[in-house]
Amino acid sequence: MDSPRVEFALLADRAEAVNGKLYVLGGAWDRITVQDFSQPVVISFAVSIIVPWNACNEEHTLSVKLLDDDGQPAGAEVEGAFNAGRPPSLARGEEQRVLIAVPAMPVQLPRAGGYLVLVGIDGAEQMRVRFRATPPGQVVAQGTPPS
Fold this sequence. Notes:
Number of strands: 9
CATH class: Mainly Beta
Largest sheet: 5 strands, mixed
Low-confidence stretches: none
Order of helices and strands: EEEEEEEEE
Number of helices: 0
Mean pLDDT: 92
Distance between the termini: 49 Å
Strand content: over 45%
Strand order of the largest sheet: 3-9-8-5-6
């Protein structure tokens, strides 16, 4: 495989990538309570990318897009470049991990319901992360209740 690939992507209350480590607070959620849909909410994204030896020392593009259940843009899109250089200690053929985080992005969710985060590299979709936005007080089933 000669192209970078997404190893994982997650949503968080706060995420930072510092010195090759990912710091996450309130991560990997799939539901968010929105107090007021007329106000933006702050969402963080964290992505781990595996870069093969042959894709090092080249510029690549990461894109993160937020869509609603109908596939329409839902107020957030981030795109940025990354380049994994080959350090002298990297063995021939060895892959590298690149961690990227968007620490705090205000997002205007138009309504309660399902949303989809599309993560792509170099224009090709790599991963989908789904989540649901709910108003306060809405009861959401978390499995089957005991009988």
